[in-house]
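Might I ask for a little of your time on a matter of protein folding? Here, with my thanks, is the record as I have it:
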Amino acid sequence: MGPALLYHTRGRIDRRRAIAHGIRVIWVVGAVAIDLIAVREKFLDGTSNPSDIRLGLGGVGYRVFSNLEAPRRFITALAGDPISRWAREALEADGDAIVQSVTERDARPPLYLALMESGSLKVAASDFRIMERALDPSWVAERIGSLAQTDFLLLDANLSQFLLADLLGRYAASTRVVFEPVSVEKAARHAAGLRGLHLATPTPEELAALLGRADGDPRDGEVFAFMDERRVANILVTRGREGASLYSGGARQDFAPGRVVDAPDTTGAGDLLDAALLSTLHRGVPMAEAVRAAMTAVEARLAEGER
């Protein structure tokens, strides 16, 4: 039995005990948000559309954190408005989250609004300004402390450029840092400062933004040149229904989906993949094998209607 398994009780992980005894941890620094997701087969422009609308807790960082099957900690920021207090109560009930409070009266809650059309994202809008103005690098680093080479630190692109660059400078040489680009615009915003990553998980469009291209699926040679220059060990390009491509060790390996799931709402599917992948890597599974296992797990979750 591996040492981490000693901290499982009734199907859950006793994370506090695991952390106290030096078991490797997956840290997530990123956004928690209030999601408002509208689902419809086809939206009509210029008019109101009766839809199936879901309200819930989301955000890339939170979705990855909440789906991890490993000792974990989550660092985020929230304001003091009623919506943020609701999110804070949910995080405090979990027990593994550390929240920096923003007390300014004009601070807004982090919000994400999306229109899902026939199972695919039609358009989305987000307001994560609180993440950019709130999290102080010294405060975050003090909460994390020192990390071992066997730990993971996932940073989502909702963080400010200054904070993400600071955390990379502090931890990239000593632990396995993972970057989740979140969106094309945010990938481009952070592209210049990315160095020393263990793993990045972009879509093809986000990968193009990281490489400074306006559009298109970058050629393999461009990807490997970027990885060599920036000291990026692995890039997993997520392609939705077309599967995924892993760039690692100077080679590209494509993964076809085990099955294509026609889910009406695929919000957060990429975050589920990140969580399943990190949980599997945490158990010592090699990267390529972990990618296949994570894809299979996400396909099963989508088929069951879970996010």
About this structure: Residues 1-13 have pLDDT under 50 and may be disordered. The domain at 3-303 is CATH 3.40.1190.20 (UDP-N-acetylmuramoyl-L-alanine:D-glutamate ligase).
